[in-house]
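For consistency, the fold was encoded as tokens, which produced the following:
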Amino acid sequence: MTRIIAHLFGLSRGRITAGFVVAAFLLAVSASGARGVEAASGLRVSAQGDCLRLRADAGFSGTVIGCIPDGSSLVGAGQQASADGLDWILVRWGEVIGWAASQYLIEESAPPAPAATTPVPPAPSVAATRVSTTLPLREPPAGGLTVGLVSFVTPRAVAAAQPFEVASLSVYDAATGRFMTYIPGSPVNTIGDDSLPAETVVFIRRRGDLPTTLPAPVPVTTMAGTPSALATPIPGGTAVGIAGTGDLAAFVSAQGFAVESVSVWDTASQRWLSHIVGAPEFANTLRTGLLNADSVVFAKRSVTAVTPAAGAPVASSGLNTVSYGPAAISFYYCTPGARNGSAGDGGGFCGYMANGERVHAGAASCAASYMGQRFLIAGDPLNRIYTCKDTGGAVTAGHRDIWFADSDEGGDWWRIVGTTAEIRVIVP
């Protein structure tokens, strides 16, 4: 299977969770069903006033990743496929790549069809000041994780450039909701040896055991530098790039969109640091003086342009939430995966939960007093709403145990995220 990657912004989930927000578009093109077109071409949506759904895969089973307003201009990305009785074309709309039904697309040169609504073009993209991290990446402690942004280099070359023994290199596949992983020396990897696209976020795990004690984040000595202007994501989406400056306020101000939050991975302390715009300083872990100019930053765009007042509940994806502080996050699952060492609390949990429902994605096991509570995990890459629907003897206090279909999915999340995360409870 050939994979087309466009702006990978990602984290995973698993036995344990930490905070950060990411968005990604990694689209699969089936080698058996996809066929090439002669050249990329200009296209326009002609859907009689409706928006045209953009899907992660050709066919109605493909996950909807956007809905393009009628009259919008697109670029054909050079692939066609047939599925569900329709012809599908791989197209690029702004920063997003996906499959669209060809019957609703016309050549850009054709006379414009009457549109019932005013076309809304995708937000313009602005290139970041820097689009790649200098290799090697920051060296993590044994067993730790480091994060980088690379362009047009193979996973093998990225791993070989590190001064430490690499256990794994991962990138996030938003189409499947899983991480794709390269393990040096393994005969089978979910990432091929092709060059990664521009601005691919990579997560590299160093071999060894993580120390029991890690240092606190170290303040930077200078905040000089020119802040990068990141590409504008869709509302609620996340842009990724190099900060360009240690001045957090300047970085937020430089963006061409309303920023809801900024997150970075602190390699030394092995945790995510997050800054929620408008929240009081004490509520943020990414504070003034902790941003490095060469940090990989994840900036989430607000769903609305309104900045919450200091001390008010912070809106996440249009929801009001209040912080319950950091909590232990673990995972349990239905079936074992294909890889050893990815097991969480245990498998075989495929039946019914304490509330009588069958287990499903988004379900969580919590202390009995929290049953029915809906919450977000700060920085969750899936931006998923979790609900306490199950209980367990080992799940006490604020601990949240998240259900996954298999241990590989949960294990990938655990290897990427860490051991704790801030819980934000949804309030009316």
Q: What stands out?
A: Residues 1-40, 110-130, 305-317, 340-345 have pLDDT under 50 and may be disordered. The first strand starts at residue 2 and ends at 6. Residues 283 and 341 are 35 Å apart (CA to CA).
